[in-house]
Amino acid sequence: MSREIKVYDTTLRDGTQGEGVSFSMEDKVRIAQRLDALGIHYIEGGWPGSNPKDLRFFKRVQGAVFKTARISAFGSTRRPGVRPQEDSNLQALVEAGPPVVTIFGKSWDLHVTHALGTTLDENVAMIGDSVAYLLKHFEEVIYDAEHFFDGFKKNREYALKTLRAAEAAGAHCLVLCDTNGGGLPHEIVEIIREVKKHVKAETPLGIHVHNDTECAVANTVAAVSEGINHIQGTINGYGERCGNANLVSIIPNVMLKMRLDCIPSASLRELRDVSRFVSELANRKPWTSQPYVGDSAFAHKGGMHVSAVLKHPDTYEHISPEAVGNHRRVLVSELSGKSNVLWKAREYGIDLDQATPDSRRILDRLKALEDEGFQFEGAEASFELLMERALGRLRPYFELDAYRVIIEEQNTSGGPVSEATVRVRVKGILEHTAAVGNGPVNALDHALRKALEEFYPNLKTMQLLDYKVRILDESKGTGAKTRVLITSGDGEETWGTVGVADNIIEASWQALVDSIEYKLRRDERRSAGR
Ligand SMILES: [Zn+2]
Questions:
Q1: Ligand 1 center–CA 334 separation, angstroms
Q2: Ligand 1 center from residue 272 Cα (angstroms)
Q3: Pick from 459, 467, 447: which is nearest to 400 by CA?
Q4: Is residue 285's pLDDT more than 50?
Q5: 49-66 per-position pLDDT tens digit
Q6: What is the pLDDT, as a whole number, of residue 390?
Q7: What is the rounded radius of gyration, in angstroms, for the C-alpha atoms of the chain?
Q8: 428: Cβ–Cβ under 8 A, 6 or more apart, which residues?
Q9: What are phi and psi of 491, to 5 degrees?
Q10: Which of 60, 179, 334, 373 is the most buried (most CB within 10 A)?
Q11: 239 C-alpha to center of ligand 1: Å?
Q12: Are 94 and 73 in contact (CB under 8 A)?
C-alpha cells in the first residue's frame, strides 16, 4: 500500500482571512458537507474563541454526520501566567466540542518576547500545558508551530525546543508553518530534514504554508516528497494576503503525479465542481487559468495544437481533463460539453443515455442559458429543475400573472419602504396579494408566499438564507446583466438557485421562483417515495 496523505482544509478559517472572502453560517455548513463528500480528512471550522459566529457553526454541526471528515476547531495556546482550565480561549475550544482541535504556539523567539511579551521558558510551558490539557477533552490534538521556518532560521535551538514541548506533551501531529509565506522549496526541504533529526521517528509532521513567494503549492509538494503526510491548505488557495496553499492543485499533484493515496480516486472528478462551488459561495469570480480546474486549463486555441490534441490528447495535455472533472475546450469550434451534462445528470439520479433526444434537449437548453450568463455551480437546485423541465417532468405549481414592486423613499427616519404586489394563478385560482419588506426582494418573497402558503403549507418551513448579486459585465455598469444566487433551506436541506436578467428584480424573481419550485418538487417526490 502506498503512503496516504491526509488533507486538512482550513478554507472556513484561514480562507476567510483572505480579502473579499466571507461566508455566512449556511455557506460554511454547505462547504463542510461538500468537502466531506470529496473525501477531505479534516475540516477546520473556525476559531470559536475569536468569533461567536464560529462557535455557532460548531453547535450547528454537532451531531451532523460526516462520512470521512473530522471537524476541527482552531485556537491558540493558553495566555501567559494563567492555568489552562482558566484560559477563556481554551475553554471556548472545549465548549465548541468537535473531535479534533488545532492550537498554534509561537516558535520564533522574537514573537515570544515582542508580540506575546513573555519569557521564552513560559512560552514553552504554555505549549506543553495547553496540549496536555486539550488531550483530556479531544480525541486528537494537532499542534501548529506558527512561524516555524522563520523562527528556525533566526534561532534554531529555540524553535526546536518549542516543537519538542508539543511532542512531549503528546500532540498527534506537529505542523510546521510558514506563516509569513516567504519560504522557497529548497529551504523548506533543508529545514524539514533538520527537524527530523530532532523529533522521534514516529512523530507525524505536517505542513502549512502561505503563498507570498507563489511557492505555497511547490513548498507543500516538496514537504510531501520529504515524507510529510499531513498537508494543510484551502480550496482555490483563498487566504490572508496572497493566500494559503491551494488544495485544488496539491491534491491532483499528490495523486496523479506522485501516485500517493489521498482522497478517493473517484472523488477526484469532483474537484472542478468543488472549486466552482466554493468560489460561487465566496462570491469570487473563478480564476480562468487556474491549474487543473480553470476554464482555460484544457482550452486549445492554436490550430496546430487543436488538430494534434484531437488526434492524440497527450500531445498538449499533461493529464486527462476528465480526471479532475474538467473538460477539453477547442476554442475555434467549441465542442459540446455533453459528457459533463451526463455526469451531472447521473449525480442527480437522472439517467440520460448519451444518444437520446432528451440529453440533446438538456444540452441545448443549458448552452442557451449559459450564453445568457447563467451558471449552475452553487445553484444545483436550478440545474435539477432545468433537467426536469427539459424532460417534461415538472408541472408548474403556479403561474405568474403579474408582479409589481414599489420602493418609496419617505422623508422620515427608517429608510425607504418596499412594497410588492403579486398576481398568480394557483390550481386554477387567481390569487392577488400584497406585502411589504425590508427590500424589494424581501417584499416579493413575502407577497408570493402569502399567495402560495394556503395551497402549499409546507412552504412555511422554508427560508431564504442568503442572497448574492454579481454584475456580469462590469464595463457596462448599471446597463450590465445581473446574476442573483439565492440560498434557501428548510431545516433538512439547503439548496441554491440562480436567476439572470438585465434587471435585478427580475433576476431575483427567477431565483426565488426556482427556490420555491425546488422545495415543492422535492417534497412531492419524497412523499411519493422517490
Ligand atoms: Zn495560515
A1: 40
A2: 24
A3: 447
A4: yes
A5: 888 889 999 999 988 889
A6: 83
A7: 26
A8: none
A9: 90, -25
A10: 179
A11: 7
A12: no
The neighbour count for residue 274, using CB atoms within 10 Å, is 24
Beta bridge partners of 463: 489
E-strand stretches of 381-489: 399-408, 417-426, 429-437, 463-471, 482-489
Beta bridge partners of 76: 104
What is the 14 CA–ligand 1 centroid distance (Å)?
6
Q: Contact at 8 Å (CB) between 332 and 301?
A: yes
The string of DSSP letters for 44-105 reads: EEE-TTT-HHHHHHHHHHTT---SS-EEEEEEEPPPTTS-GGG-HHHHHHHHH--SEEEEEE
Side-by-side strand order, sheet with 463-471: 463-471, 482-489, 494-501
- CA 17 – ligand 1 centroid, Å: 9
For 258-304, the DSSP string reads: S--B-S-GGGGGGHHHHHHHHHHHTT----TT-TTTSTTTTEE-SHH
Across 32-36, 333-337, 490-494, which has the greatest mean pLDDT? 32-36
Q: How far is the CA of 15 from the centre of ligand 1 (A)?
A: 8
DSSP 400: E
Per-residue model confidence as pLDDT tens digits over 96-127: 999 999 999 999 999 999 999 999 999 999 99
Q: How many helices (H) and strands (E) does the chain have?
A: 17, 16
In this structure, which residues have their CB less than 5 angstroms from ion ligand 1?
A: 14
CA 66 to chain CA centroid, nearest Å: 15
> How far, in Å, from the CA of 303 to the mean position of ligand 1?
43
Give residue for cell 484544457: 298
Residue 142 in contact with residue 175, Cβ under 8 Å? yes
Indicate whether 190 pLDDT > 50: yes
Read off the pLDDT of residues 476-528 as tens digits, 9 standing for 90 and up: 656 689 999 999 988 777 889 999 999 999 999 999 999 999 999 999 988 88
Residue 350 has pLDDT above 80, yes or no: no
Concatenated DSSP letters for 113-165? IIII-S-HHHHHHHHHHHHHHHHTT-SEEEEEEETHHHHHHH-HHHHHHHHHH
79 CB burial (10 A radius; 0-12, 13-18, 19+): middle
State the Cα–Cα distance between residues 452 and 431, nearest whole angstrom: 8
Residue 335 pLDDT > 80, yes or no? no
Which of 502, 483, 494, 504 is CA-nearest to residue 439? 504
Q: How many residues does the chain have?
A: 530
Q: Cα–chain-centroid distance for residue 363?
A: 27
Short-list 276, 285, 316, 311, CA closest to 298: 316
Mean pLDDT, rounded, for 407-411 = 81
User: How many A from CA of 240 to the centre of ligand 1?
Assistant: 7
